């Protein structure tokens, strides 16, 4: 039963994979610089790596905002966020998973009478505004660098494009890693305080309770990428395709850097060490950073091309998403608690600045941990099988193509 | 990746070889016309065979370049334009071959008083084609310089037009001794030689737009 509650988070992860992977590889796939299969494979692997290795930072800030301390509550919060994303997408309104989950957490705080941490809230909202602005600044600087290299290097156009293609793959992998590191908090953040699993030893390394949840969330995001992102990538790609290939590379790199900055504890600690204020570890909307980066390039080229209506729509999305999600969460929690009689959480003391309350409704139950262990191992084996299948499929395709090529040129001669 | 690296290098070499074929084809065409006007038929036949070989090689390279660009998804944003450019350049060497073949099949009788006019038209037309090749190569390596290189193409194309117009007027108005069929035949040959510079201009227009797109 307790694992069933995770499904809403997995659903949210799936929709994040289906929608947000397009921010990383959309321009590369849409412009046919990289095949969808290759992009989906790379994105899936690196999203999982990012989530497991570096997902804790941004999840911590969401935990400060509101530590949802009952699995029923976590389930409802994640579900309302997912429903908000679905509804906003259905009505073609710009939506961010990050804002949906933050709104839902605040809805939970209001319902359970918990106080929302003003400092965490300020950090999060400031990052929503600064994320796209930093994205735009990075994009301008990177675009100037790439343009200068292109102008002065006298590289053959085909070789330059081949470097761009490799760059798109490398930067895309980095972007997927950053997306996993930064946005896994949206998917699994609300479940962390509610789950306390035994450590999972995989031989080479050990996964903590949170990392096991992040791995599951990462796998859900990967499933979203593999099953549903093709259409979104092609649509987004064809919208961005007006950008040149180097501009596409710059946009993806700028976005990856912003997401990385807001999820790297190492970078934040380095800032503190040299006397600068720490970087807030906050989940940022990748879509909005991408739009910020595209606008940055537009500004560099001359502001005439910029559609200021889009800016208005983004601002409307910033306000509408958390409000809608918060309201939905409040109403849903009421129904879940009073009609289904499920515990959705309780009031706790105000969470201190630096610590996350280790409140957990599940103890380190060996049964749940065992199920989790088998689930994760099963999914990893399935993933390995899928990788092998992909490899042999690609190999077969390549051989068939080679044969047909040889036949064609033999006939021509 | 190793496979892709080889493809990139191969494709760059093939494009360069294609440009070489067109460039040398124009040189051979120039020598072929000169040999015909000097009535050196042995050299003329040798030049025809050479230009036919170059044209057939250019055709093969064209097919191979387009094939590789599609199958390896190279230059997805510029592929259509690059293919069109190669197609127009191929038309130049096709015209060179077909014009020499017309000389060979129809054996036009060119009065010696017109030798100079024919040479001038041919020189200007071939120059337009030859000036196009560095511009086409520059598109791939330094697109910022393409437009300045194209100025010479436009200059030689307009020169070709001027010279051929005055030669045609001379043939029809001054050379009363020639019958109409002969005059028409000479004009037909002139318009064929002119086609090289016309195609060069067509390619120059295309290159000019392509260069702007890539530089922006």
Q: For the record, what is the CATH homologous superfamily label of chain B?
A: Phosphate transport system protein phou homolog 2, domain 2
**Radius of gyration of chain A, in angstroms, nearest whole number:** 22 Å
Distance between the termini of chain A: 68 Å
Can you count the beta strands of chain A? 2
- Average pLDDT, all residues of chain B: 91
Number of alpha- plus pi-helical segments of chain B: 6
Largest sheet of chain B: none
Query: What Rg of chain B is obtained from the alpha carbons, in whole angstroms?
Result: 19 Å
- In helices, the fraction of residues of chain B equals over 70%
Total number of domains of chain B: 1
Number of domains of chain A: 1
If you consult CATH, what is the topology of chain B? Methane Monooxygenase Hydroxylase, Chain G, domain 1
% residues in beta strands of chain B: under 5%
The strand line-up of the biggest sheet of chain A is 1-2
The rounded distance between the terminal residues' Cα atoms of chain B is: 29 Å
| Helix content estimate of chain A | over 70%
Give the uncertain stretches of chain A in residue-range form.
350-361
Order of SSEs of chain A: HHHHHHHEEHHHHHH
Keywords:
heterodimer, A: 413 residues, mainly alpha, two-stranded antiparallel sheet, 13 helices, 2 strands, 75% helix, 1% strand, B: 216 residues, Methane Monooxygenase Hydroxylase, Chain G, domain 1, 86% helix, 0% strand, globular
Characterization of this structure:
The complex is a heterodimer of chains A (413) and B (216). With 413 residues, chain A is mostly helical. Chain A has one domain. Chain A is 75% helix and 1% strand. In chain A, strands 1-2 form a two-stranded antiparallel ribbon. In chain A, strand 1 and strand 2 form a beta hairpin. Chain A is globular and about 75 Å long. The N and C termini of chain A lie far apart (68 Å). Residues 350-361 of chain A have low confidence and may be disordered. Chain B has six helices and no strands. Chain B has helices spanning 2-37, 41-71, 79-106, 115-141, 146-173, 180-215. By secondary structure, chain B is mainly alpha-helical. Chain B has one domain (2-215): Methane Monooxygenase Hydroxylase, Chain G, domain 1, CATH 1.20.58. Classes of the chains: A mainly alpha (413), B mainly alpha (216). The interface between A and B is medium-sized, with 23 and 25 residues.
């Amino acid at each position: 039963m307790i694992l069933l509650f995770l499904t809403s988070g997995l659903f949210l992860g799936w929709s994040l994979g289906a929608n947000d992977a397009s921010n990383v590889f959309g321009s590369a796939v849409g412009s046919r610089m990289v095949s969808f299969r290759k992009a989906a494979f790379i994105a899936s692997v690196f999203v999982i790596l990012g989530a497991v290795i570096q997902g804790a930072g941004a999840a911590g800030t969401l935990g400060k905002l509101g530590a949802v301390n009952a699995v029923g509550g976590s389930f409802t919060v994640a579900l309302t966020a997912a429903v908000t994303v679905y509804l906003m997408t259905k009505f073609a309104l710009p939506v961010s998973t990050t804002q949906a989950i933050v709104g839902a957490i605040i809805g939970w705080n209001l319902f359970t009478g918990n106080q929302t941490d003003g400092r965490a809230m300020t950090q999060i909202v400031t990052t929503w505004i600064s994320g796209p602005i930093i994205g735009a600044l990075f994009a301008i600087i990177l675009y100037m660098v790439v343009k200068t290299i292109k102008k002065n290097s006298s590289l053959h156009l085909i070789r330059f494009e081949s470097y761009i293609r490799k760059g798109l793959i490398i930067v895309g992998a980095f972007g997927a890693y950053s997306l996993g590191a930064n946005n896994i908090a949206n998917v699994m953040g609300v479940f962390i305080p509610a789950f306390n699993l035994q450590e999972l030893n995989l031989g080479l390394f050990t996964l903590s309770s949170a990392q096991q949840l992040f791995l599951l969330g990462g796998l859900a995001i990967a499933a979203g990428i593999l099953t549903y992102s093709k259409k979104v990538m092609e649509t987004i790609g064809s919208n961005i395709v007006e950008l040149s290939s180097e501009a596409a590379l710059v946009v993806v790199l700028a976005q990856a850097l912003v997401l990385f900055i807001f999820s790297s504890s190492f970078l934040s600690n380095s800032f503190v060490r040299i006397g600068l204020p720490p970087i807030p570890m906050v989940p940022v909307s990748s879509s909005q950073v991408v739009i910020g980066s595209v606008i940055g390039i537009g500004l560099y080229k001359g502001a005439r091309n910029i559609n200021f209506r889009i800016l208005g729509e983004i601002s409307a999305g910033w306000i509408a998403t958390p409000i809608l999600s918060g309201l939905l969460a409040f109403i849903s929690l009421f129904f879940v608690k009073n009609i289904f009689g499920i515990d959705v959480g309780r009031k706790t003391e105000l969470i201190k600045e630096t610590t996350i309350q280790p409140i957990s409704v599940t103890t380190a139950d060996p049964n749940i941990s065992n199920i989790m262990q088998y689930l994760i191992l099963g999914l990893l084996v399935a993933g390995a099988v899928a990788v092998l299948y992909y490899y042999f499929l690609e190999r077969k395709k390549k051989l068939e193509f080679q044969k047909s090529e040889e036949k064609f040129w033999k006939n021509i001669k | 990746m190793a496979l892709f690296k080889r493809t990139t290098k191969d494709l760059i070499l093939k494009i360069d070889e294609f440009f070489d074929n067109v460039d040398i084809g124009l040189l051979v065409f120039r020598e072929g016309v000169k040999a015909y006007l000097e009535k050196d038929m042995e050299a003329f036949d040798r030049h025809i065979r050479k230009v036919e070989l170059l044209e057939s090689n250019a055709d093969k390279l064209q097919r191979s370049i387009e094939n590789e660009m599609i199958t390896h998804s190279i230059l997805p944003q510029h592929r259509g334009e690059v293919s069109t450019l190669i197609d127009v350049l191929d038309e130049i060497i096709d015209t060179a071959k077909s014009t020499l073949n017309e000389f060979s099949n129809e054996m036009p009788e060119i009065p010696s008083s017109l030798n100079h006019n024919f040479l001038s038209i041919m020189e200007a037309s071939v120059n337009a084609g030859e000036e196009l090749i560095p511009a086409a190569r520059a598109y791939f390596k330094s697109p910022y310089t393409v437009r300045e290189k194209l100025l010479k193409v436009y200059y030689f194309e307009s020169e070709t037009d001027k010279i051929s117009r005055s030669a045609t007027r001379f043939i029809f108005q001054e050379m009363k001794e020639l019958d109409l069929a002969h005059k028409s035949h000479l004009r037909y040959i002139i318009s064929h030689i002119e086609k090289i510079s016309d195609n060069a201009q067509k390619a120059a227009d295309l290159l000019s737009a392509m260069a702007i797109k890539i530089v922006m």
